[in-house]
Conjugative transfer protein TraD
Amino acid sequence: FDRKADARKKIMLGGLFVKAGLDYLHPDNAHILYGMLLDCKEQLILNPKIIDKWK
């Protein structure tokens, strides 16, 4: 477990939320983003080929 690598990964993932325009949500509403990610995960499980849409 490399703390630097972990921090870098979290910063990169946070940057993706900014790039997607989702950074307007207040941190108190993090549950909304979490729910969105869980829905996305479920869709990927049900239809793995959907990932091709995002490539």
Q: What stands out?
A: The chain has two helices and no strands. The helical segments are 3-19, 30-46. Residues 3-19 form the longest helix (17 residues). The chain has a mean pLDDT of 92.
